[in-house]
UniProtKB/TrEMBL annotation:
<keyword id="KW-0963">Cytoplasm</keyword>
<keyword id="KW-0418">Kinase</keyword>
<comment type="similarity">
    <text>Belongs to the CoaE family.</text>
</comment>
<dbReference type="InterPro" id="IPR027417">
    <property type="entry name" value="P-loop_NTPase"/>
</dbReference>
<dbReference type="GO" id="GO:0004140">
    <property type="term" value="F:dephospho-CoA kinase activity"/>
</dbReference>
<comment type="pathway">
    <text>Cofactor biosynthesis; coenzyme A biosynthesis; CoA from (R)-pantothenate: step 5/5.</text>
</comment>
<dbReference type="GO" id="GO:0005524">
    <property type="term" value="F:ATP binding"/>
</dbReference>
<protein>
    <recommendedName>
        <fullName>Dephospho-CoA kinase</fullName>
        <ecNumber>2.7.1.24</ecNumber>
    </recommendedName>
</protein>
<comment type="function">
    <text>Catalyzes the phosphorylation of the 3'-hydroxyl group of dephosphocoenzyme A to form coenzyme A.</text>
</comment>
<keyword id="KW-0173">Coenzyme A biosynthesis</keyword>
<feature type="binding site">
    <location>
        <begin position="14"/>
        <end position="19"/>
    </location>
    <ligand>
        <name>ATP</name>
    </ligand>
</feature>
<dbReference type="GO" id="GO:0005737">
    <property type="term" value="C:cytoplasm"/>
</dbReference>
<dbReference type="InterPro" id="IPR001977">
    <property type="entry name" value="Depp_CoAkinase"/>
</dbReference>
<dbReference type="Pfam" id="PF01121">
    <property type="entry name" value="CoaE"/>
</dbReference>
<keyword id="KW-0067">ATP-binding</keyword>
<keyword id="KW-0808">Transferase</keyword>
<keyword id="KW-0547">Nucleotide-binding</keyword>
Length: 201
């Protein structure tokens, strides 16, 4: 049997999902980053043509690629526009996730598979996960982190309002990992968690 344990990572924007994912990679995990796949989806020629048809050339940079900031300013303020974009890219991302899941499951190097996806529960990708881990950080911590990305507090609110409420994500998780500056070491929390799940001695 090639099935490897699959951990889905969810949490608020700026909670540190990527940090937790990378810590799990160091513990033997192979990472599927849905955000990176999402960027690739915008570069795919067929998707790009559909996006231009749906939103017009105004969302393009001078080099012809999608300006993600411009596109984001449209789709994160209007649910109908967001649904339009998701109908184009989500099937493509889902196919890519399935392909990578199959590759990693057959790869002896991978002790487990990590799926880091902001909209995991909204898309149903949690269906391929054995466990869901919610990464938690205070709003002030998350605002500081997204500010370092060049986002405003309003950007954070707009994007989070397009997702399931955090309390719903937390309630549907199998475990919660604290990731504020004064929280215990991420790796320490993860090792303890993996032992509790029987995935590490």
């Amino acid at each position: 049997m090639n099935h490897k344990p699959v951990i889905g990572i969810v949490g608020g924007i700026g909670a540190g999902k990527s940090t937790v994912s990378q810590a799990l990679v160091k513990l033997g995990g192979c990472l599927i980053d849905a955000d990176q796949i999402g960027h690739a989806a915008l570069r795919d020629a067929e998707n790009l043509q559909k996006i231009i048809e749906a939103f017009g050339p105004k969302i393009l940079k001078e080099d012809g690629s999608v300006d993600r900031r411009k596109l984001g300013s449209i789709v994160f303020k209007d649910p109908l526009e967001r649904e339009k974009l998701e109908s184009i890219v989500i099937p493509w991302i889902s196919d890519e996730i399935r392909l990578r899941m199959k590759d990693f499951s057959a790869n002896p190097v991978c002790q487990m598979v990590i799926l880091d996806a902001a909209i995991m529960l909204e898309t149903g990708w949690n269906g391929v996960c054995d466990k869901i881990l919610f990464v938690e950080a205070s709003l002030s911590t998350r605002e500081k982190r997204v500010k370092a990305r060049g986002w405003s507090a309003e950007d954070l609110r707009d994007r989070e309002s397009s997702q399931l409420p955090l309390e719903v994500k937390k309630a549907r998780a199998d475990a919660v990992l604290a990731n504020d500056p004064d929280s215990p070491e991420i790796s320490t929390q993860l090792v303890s968690l993996l032992k509790n799940w029987g995935w590490r001695r």
